[in-house]
Amino acid sequence: MIDIRFGPQICGELSASSTREWLVTDGRGGYAMGTVAGLRTRRYHGLLVVAGETPAARKVGLVSLDPAVTLPSGQQARLGAHEWSSGVVDPRGFELLERFDLTEGVPRWRWRVGDVVIEREIAMAYGRSCVAVVHRLISGGPVRLDLAAACTWRDAHGERRADGPAPRLEQVAGGAVVDGAFRLAGPDWTPEGQWWLGVRHREEAARGLHPDEDLWYAGRFSGALDEPGAEVSVLAWADDLAEEPPPATALVEAARRRHRAVVAAAKPDDDVDATLALAADAFVVRTATGPDVVAGYPWFGAWSRDTMTSYEGLFLRTNRADEGRDLLRAYAATLSEGMLANTADTGRVEHNTVDATLWFLHAVSRHVAVTGDTDLGAELLPALHGVVAAHVAGTRYGIRVDPADGLLTQGGPPDVALTWMDARVYGVPVTPRTGKPVEVNALWVNGLAGLAELTELAGRDATELRDRHARAAAAFRERFPTPAGWLHDVVDAPAPAYPLGGAPHHDDDLLRPNQLLAWSLPYAPLEPDEATLRRVTEGLFTPLGPRSLAPDSPGFVGRHRGGPAERDSGYHQGTVWPWLIGPFVDAYRRAGLPTDDLLVGLEGHLTEYGLGSVSETADGLAPHAATGCPFQAWSVAELLRVRRLGR
């Protein structure tokens, strides 16, 4: 894996160390997450964040475990870090850091106070909501280490304040149970029980959200570090509170062994592949219904569009096809009226996308093509034929095959956005894309051809599918090219001067990256040419992937910043989306153009934001600062996929 290591100049500079985030996960959607500095900059940061019935229903439990070391002289050095509502940062333990590294997926800090060096490592138990925090004396001593446990128990998207009831603290052997929800265990527990008022999260302030909360100082653990090698460890866990986990040091070593095994199973070609294979592992979770995919940390749960777009990279290019087979079966069971369920973070199961189902057709086709698993193809064939039949007949939101040309169109009420460009502001879609979107129809053409092949592999006649595919592909080639040399983003869209459903239509020729799928998919309707790709590259490409809108287009937003409405307004109006590097590179390869230099920026990004991972989005203008989730499934999956396919 790539070497992720920072010395004192990065660690001690808050603007640098507080914007680099680490993540360890429990395989269920829970996690521990924070910054290199140790400063919590998000409401989502914590050492024990517990997944509920779904990965999105998370609760924050143990927030921080602040170390303070008492030296032989009696002097005390505080190694933690908090920012307060006044803007003051105190303590400033990051100024004593001499190194941070992320080794085999385990974050490690080293603080130096004179000749005393103390190390911290954090890992989670796989398959259980449990975190282990290990402190070790590397040199110097003897010293005493106190660990102040700041706690809460609240929804990950909110805050808890001192004007409400304090968390209930129950004394148990070796520690305490907080609010009956999670347990703390370690040496020499001393209960405290007081509020820390006005802890500030600077990233929430930047996102226009309430930045402050109050934390409950539950108590502290203490232990002597008499000589190098001595350890003081703390465990925190939820679920079965009576079942004590293995020792913390054993959990850290178990995490390292598992991470090595995950990487080895993926058979990486180089250190970047190995890093991406481990990054991919964070998103593959096991729920009560089987395998699933977390779309992004820290705030997303499972979204079917993201899952299916990520499928090949997360499962097939990491040799996890057995888990993938179970996932595809489970998702097939959610089909209704030919539409795949979108297991939204709201907790409701909704069928409200035009493209997730088409990505599902693609995922099944790729699974069979890569693995040779024709049994799964045959098993799912009736469901897949049902998808096509429902789209031909017409399904929810006006999604139907236009009998005039065989292309897929979508309508729906004016407050609905059905494509991946689904941002809404005050209930109004920013990019409604009503009509026939280019990537939706590329996926439709691709899906028909892939399903025809699966049908023939099962020994059945695919003549009707082949005819539908030929007709839709011919219509695509006729309708989507623009005089400007690229493809329309939407054809047959309602004219702006007319209400939704009005008679006149127009074709939207704004330069967007959605057209890449028309050249990149296995059964793409068009062959790319160098001149067209050069135009698209000039208008859209950045070091972190394509922009969602060219800078010279009306409505372009270069900075994905501000409050929720401002950010959502720019979400697909110029913001960079790293996941689009996949179709971008595929299109280049199909055109016979070199691609190695296209990935340099994203590979460098692995040490810049979400450490060892790829962000959800970035600013459309230089220096293309990362935004959104620091750890995003389809960003990782598509970079991993195109790197591995290129070797």
Automatic annotation (TrEMBL):
Stated name of the protein = Amylo-alpha-1,6-glucosidase
**What species is this protein from?**
Micromonospora fulviviridis
| Domain of life of the source | Bacteria
PANTHER family documented for this protein: GLYCOGEN DEBRANCHING ENZYME (PTHR10569:SF2)
Residue span, Glycogen debranching enzyme bacterial and archaeal type N-terminal domain? 20-226
What are the Glycogen debranching enzyme C-terminal domain coordinates in residue numbering? 279-641
Its lineage opens with: Bacteria, Bacillati, Actinomycetota, Actinomycetes, Micromonosporales
Q: SUPFAM superfamilies annotated for this entry?
A: Six-hairpin glycosidases
Q: What is one Pfam family matched by this protein?
A: GDE_C
Q: Which InterPro entries match?
A: 6-hairpin_glycosidase_sf (IPR008928), 6hp_glycosidase-like_sf (IPR012341), AGL/Gdb1 (IPR010401), GDE_C (IPR032790), Glycogen_debranch_N (IPR024742)
